[in-house]
Give the backbone structure.
Amino acid sequence: MKTLLALALLLNVSPFDQPKMVQYSTIDAFLAGVYNGDLTVGDLKKQGDFGIGTFNGIDGELFMLDGEVTQIRAVGNPVPATDDMLIPFATFCTFSPGHTATLAGPADDEAVYKMIEQRMFPNPNVFYAVELEGTFTEVIARAPRKQSSADAAISDVIDTQSVFTFQQIEGTMIGFWCPQFVNGINIGGWHMHFLSKDKTRGGHVLSFEIGQINVSVMEMMNFEVMLPHEANYFEANLNLDRAEIRTKIEQSQVGSHSDQDAVSAPKNQHPGSPALQ
């Protein structure tokens, strides 16, 4: 930390002016059933131009790029989000990438993530915002259905979600990579959302394979958490067993509802490692 402070002073840059990742609410609160918040889309756009999350009642996925917020609904048709819509959980920033690269497939998400981590993440103990833009041979994504009951268990939410398979599609994935020490506040590792180029398809990314993509990465040294001013948050039991809940999510996902797009090409059964161009 002393080295970082000294470097910042040497460059005449305050540590408080460094890029930051901002989060509204916590993942533990969300898993505990805090599905409603008081953050509006309008206020979100005043604080950043790049982010992911969901909407009150878990009504689909939130995708914000270049200050435009899209609601990706479980019925399969993304729509622009209005400024008065409310958000229970979101992660966002003002995106200004410092590293870029072009990757050529075939390669699956595991290989792509590994390459980015090894080549474009110089420090494993900080935060990264990532944009992947280009052609994908396959994207599997999900979007939750709005919950009518505030008492719905997260495993019930997963049971009723829609799962989509998109093939030979152009679009953009955005999201964040967090270090493991934030587990419970956020989730360590990757969290990505997808929106097609024509803005007609998308969701929370489960897996993907690439054709050719442009990668943009921003390192963030600062992390800010905003907590909901909501009774359901104040009253939530946050002393929960996260491992048990995640197991329930994995089990319920096997039987999740699937709405698949028409297949335009066979899936690549043996994706390799991405080529850095």
